[in-house]
Amino acid sequence: MPESSDIIFEERYNDILDFLVIGDWGFQGKGVGRKHGNQKNVAFVMKKWAERYNSQFIINVGDSFYKSENDDHQGVDSIYDDKWKTAWLDVYKGRLAEIPWYSVAGNHDWYNNVYAEIEYSLNVNSRFFMPSLFYVRTNIISGKKPTKVAWIHIDTNLFFYTYDMIQNDQMKNNFNILGWNNDIEVDNKLRWIEQQLIEQQDADWILVAGHHPLIGACVSFNYMPRLVELFERYGVSAYFAGHAHVLEYQTPKPDSPVAYFTSGAASRTSDGCSGKDWGMPEGTFGFLHATIIENEMTFSFVNATTTKDKIVYQSKLTARSTWRPK
């Protein structure tokens, strides 16, 4: 199974970068009191936003496929699994069906054949972009002031869970296949992340996407604090995650300049992380929209519990190059 890619995937855009962030979107069961289920409501609103702003891609922070009914299975079985059609292709239409989904794996993806998601990306449909469990992309935005955005996509399952605490047999088997059953592998992957951060220090923006949140009390799980240490040491601009089925945000601080986003409410809802700066209550479905123009990122959390969307939180970030000169 490809664990990390040596290739840096470079993309070029004109003047502006516009994207959506969703996670935990692959639950197809009916929402409480909702005739059509909340996944489709969120997809409907996302389509409107993607077409309104001509979004260029989606950041998928994992848990792409769930067990939605009693006779269903977690994740996907293979590249031929019906869920590729029923949970993804048939749900996300219009602009959402034209742009790439830059993806990482969540724990529910690991509960089955996580390699099938990589194989699907490499051999069936590269729009579901996950060439390996860890990979790096760069966005070069042309304009009056050319801007570089570096994306580091990571698999946080290795950091959130210790091998001994994993109760799902298939996830444990997948960890065994990769040799992810000892602290040495944790250290190896942290060194890989650190090396990518070092190599991308010339970027105006360094953005990291993973599955598990780093907001408030959620930071404390096992090896997750070591990610925070790396992000702060190397000036990461923002970290995007899901896992908690909520919309939440932790603002940059003088001693911790990283912005932390949780957008894990695309098909399920739950409690979030205690100690957050802002968050919507359980029962809220939605996603995150963001736009980068040179040294400024504007972002909006969108409540899509019904098809009548509403912005529930909006703010701005400044590029790391303004507070951490090259």
TrEMBL record:
UniProt KW keywords: Hydrolase, Signal
Domain spans labelled Calcineurin-like phosphoesterase: 19-246
One GO molecular-function entry: hydrolase activity
Taxonomic path: Eukaryota, Fungi, Fungi incertae sedis, Mucoromycota, Glomeromycotina
Pfam families reported in the protein's UniProt record: Metallophos (PF00149)
Descriptive protein name: Metallo-dependent phosphatase
SUPFAM superfamilies: Metallo-dependent phosphatases (SSF56300)
Native source species: Rhizophagus irregularis
Highest taxon listed in the record's lineage: Eukaryota
Bilayer-spanning residue ranges: none
